[in-house]
Amino acid sequence: MSAAQWFGLLLTLFAGLLSGNCMLPMKFARRWPWEATWLIFSVVSLVILPWALAAALVNRVGAVYAALPAEAFLAPLLFGAGWGIAQVLFGISIARLGLALGYAIIIGLGALLGTLVPLVVSHRDVAMTGRGVLIFTGVAIMLTGIAVSARAGRMREGASAATPGSQGYGAALALALLCGVMAPMLNFSFAFGQPIADAAVRMGTSREASGYAVWPVALTGGLLPNVGYSLWLLRRNRTWSAFRGGWSPDLWCGCLMGVFWMGAVAIYGVSSVYLGELGTSAGWALFQIFMIMTANLSGVLTGEWRGVEPRAMRKLWGGLALLAVATAVIAAGNR
């Protein structure tokens, strides 16, 4: 790979580190219910930070948007909304199926579709070459690694929330599949929102920073489902009182989650430029791999795997080793 692509790979690794740890601050939220923390996280990550980054790093961002036809915003907005719905479905699916099975279905499908759809739609000529074969092979190894890691997680958890044959299992499985199909729409929003980035370049923004013009549009689509669901839960559970009584340390947990998540997304957008023409396909696969590896390793370091039987730990390390091999194969295909 070129020096630029190596730099893109390092940026993608850093983005995966941030994304894999973005939910970690929620473990330290003591007083607030989930919906209160999620509301703050959503506002920070989907409104405040993307618009602040666009204002700071995109030259004449208002003029960029004004110069574009309305249809240029349609794809990123709609895909962003689909991703926002997937965010809500993710929590419901995990609660019903358990972390291991739900995570395998949703992350596996999201990584698969998020990698292959931009490749086939925008780079069909590459898909049928040796480079495309390498990327397809890397994705297959990645899915195997996700499955092995999920099996280890299943052994750690014991029985999941829903099992085959139990009441509601079919509905829970269908929900997870729908979530997995919609989860990569965040990448679709960015990949098919490149006309906005191109307009930013024409207005004097560097190619590396042009993606910051796309995120405010894409994440506006994801804002309504996330904020709407949080507000509905606050009303249903009568938990508005969490915001009373002055500033809570839990507020900073939600803010830090937003900084980690938006930081990961923003850095992924930059890394996709350095990775080259396949940045939004191979780059997405690498981003997902690094995120999964980070989340699992963070779980080990924070004691989530303490006392687990050795067989489960061997599967975990085996799954992580497969993800490392997938990284090498996909990176080779991206050359």
Individual helix count = 14
Looking at the chains present, what oligomeric state does this protein adopt? single chain
- Give, in order, the helices and strands: HHHHHHHHHHHHHH
* Overall helicity: over 70%
Number of domains: 1
DSSP strand content: under 5%
Distance between the termini: 5 Å
Low-confidence stretches: none
Rg to the nearest angstrom?
Answer: 20 Å
Instruction: State the total count of DSSP E strands.
Output: 0
Broad shape: globular
* Biggest sheet statistics: none
Average pLDDT, all residues: 84
Computed structural class: mainly alpha
Structural overview:
By secondary structure, the protein is mostly helical. It has one domain. It is 76% helix and 0% strand. It has 14 helices and no strands. Helix 5 runs parallel beside helix 8. The chain is globular, with a radius of gyration of 20 Å.
Summary keywords:
single chain, globular, mainly alpha, 76% helix, 335 residues
Write the layout of secondary structure elements.
Layout lengths: L2 H18 L13 H24 L3 H6 L4 H27 L1 H24 L1 H4 L2 H28 L11 H14 L2 H7 L2 H9 L12 H22 L12 H26 L7 H20 L8 H24 L2
Helix pairs in contact: 1-12, 1-13, 2-11, 2-12, 4-5, 4-8, 4-9, 4-11, 5-7, 5-8, 5-9, 5-13, 7-13, 7-14, 13-14
